[in-house]
Design goal:
Elements lengths: L4 E5 L5 H11 L3 E6 L12 E5 L5 H7 L3 E6 L12 H18 L3 E5 L11 H15 L4 E6 L2 E2 L5 H11 L2 E5 L5 E2 L2 E2 H11 L6 E5 L5 E2 H11 L5 E5 L1 H15 L6 H8 L15 H8 L10 H5 L2
Parallel strand pairs: 1-2, 1-4, 2-3, 4-5, 5-6, 6-11, 7-10, 8-13
Antiparallel strand pairs: 9-12
Helix pairs in contact: 1-6, 2-3, 3-4
C-alpha cells in the first residue's frame, strides 16, 4: 500500500534513533537502511533492517518503494578506512536517485547549520553540495539544519564529560568564546517527523532555546558531573594533538582540526528563532549521572 511506511537511515544510530521513536509513537511503520543490517537494534522486531545497497541501485530502489518519507541521516564525521566525504556525497546521490525512481513522496534530509559550498571545511561543504542536489531533484524535500545535537547517546558531549571526570585539566581550543546552540535529539526527531506531514519543500534550521560559549558549555558540564579540572585555553593544533593522545589509548578519533575550526568559527549557532523547546541546562541537570560514565567511540559505532 502506498505511503504505508517510512524509511529511516541508521535507525539504531543516534539521530535516526530519535526520528524512529517519533514515527513509531505516531503509529507509523518504519524500516531502516543501514550499513550494519545484522546488528541488534533498540526497536527489536518493530522495524525491518535493510542494507544500503549503494552498489546495487535497483535493490535500493526496491527497498524504498511504497515509502511515504525517506529520512536521511547518512553521513561521515571524518574520512576513515576509505570512506570519505566524496563517497558519502556519491552514495547519498544514489539514494536520492533511488527515492525518485521509487516514487518516494518526500525526502527529509538532516544537514547542518551554515552549510555552504564555499566553506573551507569539507564537512560543511559536502553537506551544502548535497543540499543543492536535493533542491535540484524533483522530490518534495525538507532540509533540516541542526546545530549541536545532544542526548544520552551523543559522542561529543559525552566524551567531554568523560574527560572532565578523569583528567585534572581540560584543553579548550582557542579562547572558547565561540558559541553553540544545542538542540535535543528528541526535539529534532519530532521536527523531522512533522516535516514529513505535507508535500511542501523547505529548508530550515533546527536549534534549541539556549546559546552558550564553548567555554561556558564545558564549565557547565564540569559542574554537573561534580568535577573541578583546570580549564586551559590552547592553540587548536595543541588541543587536537592532546586529543590524539587520548585517541591512541581509546583506539578512536576524538577530535579533528577541521572540527575544532568549525567550532571556533561559530558554525553551530544561527540567527533563526528557536524551534525546539528542551533546554540543555535543564536536560543536563537531569541527566548528568548518565553522561561521561563510559567513553563513546566513533570508530566502534560506525566503522567496526
Amino acid at each position: 500500500m502506498p505511503d504505508d511506511f517510512d524509511v529511516v537511515t541508521g535507525a539504531s544510530g543516534y539521530t535516526g534513533r530519535y526520528i524512529t521513536r517519533a514515527l513509531l509513537s505516531r503509529g507509523r511503520r518504519v524500516k531502516t537502511l543501514t550499513g550494519h543490517p545484522t546488528r541488534a537494534n533498540p526497536f527489536g522486531d518493530q522495524i525491518e533492517a535493510m542494507p544500503f545497497n549503494f552498489d546495487r541501485p535497483e535493490q535500493l530502489k526496491r527497498s524504498v518503494e511504497g515509502v511515504r518519507a525517506l529520512f536521511n541521516t547518512y553521513w561521515v564525521r571524518f574520512p576513515y578506512a576509505g570512506r570519505t566525504f566524496d563517497t558519502a556525497i556519491a552514495n547519498t546521490r544514489v539514494m536520492l536517485d533511488a527515492a525518485k525512481a521509487a516514487g518516494v513522496r518526500k525526502f527529509v534530509h538532516i544537514s547542518v547549520t551554515k552549510a555552504t559550498e564555499s566553506s573551507p571545511l569539507p564537512y560543511f561543504r559536502g553537506k551544502a553540495i548535497l543540499e543543492a542536489a536535493i533542491r535540484q531533484s524533483s522530490l518534495p524535500y525538507a532540509i533540516i539544519r541542526p546545530a549541536l545535537i545532544f542526548g544520552v547517546e551523543d559522542i561529543l558531549l559525552n566524551n567531554i564529560a568523560w574527560l572532565l571526570r578523569r583528567f585534572p585539566f581540560f584543553a579548550i581550543p582557542g579562547r572558547g568564546d565561540y558559541r553553540v546552540q544545542p538542540i535535543f535529539a528528541g526535539d529534532l526527531g519530532e521536527i523531522a517527523a512533522n516535516a514529513a506531514s505535507d508535500d511542501q519543500s523547505a529548508t530550515f534550521d533546527a536549534v534549541g532555546p539556549e546559546i552558550f560559549t564553548f567555554d561556558e558549555l564545558v564549565r557547565m558540564i564540569a559542574r554537573a558531573v561534580h568535577r573541578r579540572p583546570r580549564i586551559v585555553h590552547v592553540d587548536p593544533r595543541v588541543a587536537v594533538a592532546l586529543a590524539s593522545i587520548v585517541g591512541w589509548f581509546v583506539r578512536d578519533v576524538t577530535l579533528t582540526l577541521d572540527e575544532a575550526r568549525g567550532l571556533m568559527t561559530n558554525l553551530l549557532v544561527t540567527d533563526s528563532a528557536p524551534n525546539a523547546t528542551t533546554r540543555f541546562s535543564e536536560w543536563l541537570r537531569l541527566n548528568a549521572d548518565k553522561i561521561g560514565t563510559a567513553y563513546a567511540s566513533e570508530l566502534a559505532r560506525h566503522f567496526r
